[in-house]
Known about the structure:
Blueprint: H1 3-6, E1 17-20, E2 23-35, E3 40-48, E4 53-59, E5 62-69, E6 88-91, E7 94-111, E8 122-130, E9 133-140, E10 143-152, H2 154-161, H3 168-177, H4 183-199, E11 216-217, E12 229-232, E13 235-249, E14 252-262, E15 268-273, E16 282-287, H5 296-300, E17 305-306, E18 316-329, E19 343-351, E20 354-360, E21 365-373, H6 375-382
Parallel strand pairs: 11-14
Antiparallel strand pairs: 1-2, 2-3, 2-7, 3-4, 4-5, 5-10, 6-7, 7-8, 8-9, 9-10, 12-13, 13-14, 13-18, 14-15, 15-16, 16-21, 17-18, 18-19, 19-20, 20-21
Amino acid sequence: xxxxxxxxxxxxxxxxxxxxxxxxxxxxxxxxxxxxxxxxxxxxxxxxxxxxxxxxxxxxxxxxxxxxxxxxxxxxxxxxxxxxxxxxxxxxxxxxxxxxxxxxxxxxxxxxxxxxxxxxxxxxxxxxxxxxxxxxxxxxxxxxxxxxxxxxxxxxxxxxxxxxxxxxxxxxxxxxxxxxxxxxxxxxxxxxxxxxxxxxxxxxxxxxxxxxxxxxxxxxxxxxxxxxxxxxxxxxxxxxxxxxxxxxxxxxxxxxxxxxxxxxxxxxxxxxxxxxxxxxxxxxxxxxxxxxxxxxxxxxxxxxxxxxxxxxxxxxxxxxxxxxxxxxxxxxxxxxxxxxxxxxxxxxxxxxxxxxxxxxxxxxxxxxxxxxxxxxxxxxxxxxxxxx
Length: 388
């Protein structure tokens, strides 16, 4: 058995523990798989606290979480061998769109694998779509298993299990593992990537991956507190809550003040101090409903620069960030934070003259639009001294 067959392309190992998709898990096994075309992937056997298990699949830099399920109306066994790429089957009385049909083989097992996973075991499988769900049907003879899955963003898995960000060499080794490349081809691929990285380093966008901590800049106190009242943008507001939020972005770590506001009608707003470590200006933000249908996973794929086409909002992402609310004081009509200590991800963008502020976890996304205000405008509105 070769080194590349046994080697784990990620830092997720057996016995690792973490919280993923709202549940606590322990990794009890790892299975290296391949198909007839030589494409390789990893399946991590997760055991849920309190019972139950999941399969966390890693392939070509992407993560997917699958759960075994029993269909109410299975695909007839005789139809499975007849399935073809792009065809249709019926599962639970609904159309299952077949994306591709392949055969799989277990290359290596570490730790505890689900039943039937032994080195050398082969089976057929179908990857398909049933509505919004990924479906995998695996069968060998009369034995059939059905899995329902969904995509996970890389940051979700890294955060859940405290994994480091993948580096260039690890990506190259992974490319070798998941293809039929020779070692010489991998070497030349790495060499070309290094040359391109040096040549175009100035054009690489910001990423919510942080290789080293930077000095933390602490926000000055603006003198605002829950209960105070003021008028901003011709609307009367009362401060409901205050949070000290630590923000990390490439090259900067700083702590800023964020306040939830409520007007006489009960409508809420978010008042954020500091666009970056050096700015004392504010953003007055109100909820943006046009992005309500965009999932956290979609936002996690956005990068610095022009927003993806086809989205409800268009503009330019200024930077991506990671944030943690360190302290929260006061009651909230609407909670823009997930509680002290919870890691969130986000970006700040411009859409014409307005700003778009989006922050998310794997469970939810919060989106706001608003305008920039000078520090003295906010200070005068609430009757406090402007910070300098």
